Amino acid sequence: MTATDTVDVGQGRKAAQPTRAFSTFEWMIAGRYLRSRRKETFISVIAGFSFAGIMLGVATLIIVMAVMNGFRSELLGKILGINGHMLVQPIDLPLNDYDAVSARLEGVPDVVAAIPFIEGQALVSGPAGNLGALVRGVYESDLRRIPLIANNMRSGTIDGFDAGEGVAIGSRMAQQLGLVVGDNVTIISPRGSVTPMGVTPRVKAYPVSAIFEIGMSEYDSTFLFMPLEEAQAYFNMGDKATGIEIYVVDPDNVGVMTNAIEEGANRPAFVTDWRQRNVTFFSALEVERNVMFIILTLIVLVAALNIISGLIMLVKDKGRDIAILRTMGATRGSIMRIFLITGASIGCVGTLAGFFLGLIVCLNIESIRQFVSWLTSTQLFDPTLYFLSKLPAEIDSGETMTVLLMALALSLLATLYPAWRAARLDPVEALRYE
């Protein structure tokens, strides 16, 4: 195999048609440079570290971004699943026409449900202890329209919820208070009856009719649902409601629906959406996600710098080979492409391996977490600290493609300078002392 081909022109034999770009010859030479031989072991070790660095960098980026996306998606789903996408609260006048307002709001386009509720804070007590709770009164029909509650009943039922005096509590609240379905939970509110001696706390016991498990530790240990009319009586609300929660088709589109909701309410009302109520929380998540992306990109950058150092050493070691190829007719472009292929092969294969490694880890991340927890006898993901009961991971195809393209671009850029140096090598200088 030679770097040039010969062609017959007329009567004579003339040389010199250069090989086409990225020909078999160039791939063959690049492949030989990638294979390890005894005297080139050190260079091959550097290439191996470069490959491992890019693979681990890409895999880490994919895994971390997937976990961050999973956190945001799970938290958003849990928060919006129980709190609603928009909240209508009364201004000036008490909300005693909540049934009529709810019916009007459900007639607004893209509104799925409008749920009136009573809300108050109280102390709940059971055989095993006491907890602060958020007591929420709703209709049974509305409680069934909240899939996060209705579809996640761990025990008991909400059948006949409006007719009885039973309450539904979260699984972690039941566990911490030592309660099961059928037991009584005592609810204590400081806003009780007014007597000549002042306001006395209201204390009442309710049977636990259902225990739900949302999967978000904060909500499972805080929320207690009771019938709306019973909540009105318990909190001395009369015929009034605290507000109306609205669920819409597209939660990301709530900004353009505010005017329609205000018109649909047809009464003085203050309308807020989930982004306004949780702006600090989700902004912090977004900042953390972007910073993690920048920091982890440095891993890929360091691996790309290893490619540069490895190729420069390879060029120094192969100076004699390059000079011989040049004297045989190889062009500067051909030499440059040989080293481009050599460096880019490390980057491309490392990126592909990192993609598959990251994909495998993301698809099995909860099993891996449980295995590592069992192996180390520690709890790596405490639900009380991270809100969720399991480690989530959600791969975004657009972000993953961005990571892959970035890794490939850095790998390709890292090969340019060493390849340019190899192409600029003077054959006479390289062979002078040979």
TrEMBL record:
Cross-referenced InterPro entries: ABC3_permease_C, Lipoprotein-release_system, LolCE_TM, MacB_PCD
Sorted UniProt keywords: Cell membrane, Lipoprotein, Membrane, Transmembrane, Transmembrane helix, Transport
Any GO CC annotation of this UniProt entry: plasma membrane protein complex
Name under which the protein is recorded: Lipoprotein-releasing system transmembrane protein LolE
ABC3 transporter permease C-terminal domain mapped to chain residues: 293-427
Record field: transmembrane: 42-68, 291-315, 335-359, 401-420
Main location, first listed in the record: membrane
Membrane topology reported for the UniProt record: Multi-pass membrane protein
Domain MacB-like periplasmic core stretches: 51-262
Gene Ontology terms describing biological process: lipoprotein localization to outer membrane; lipoprotein transport
Source taxon at top rank: Bacteria
Gene: lolE_1
Family as reported in the entry's similarity comment: Belongs to the ABC-4 integral membrane protein family. LolC/E subfamily.
Location(s) in or outside the cell: Cell membrane
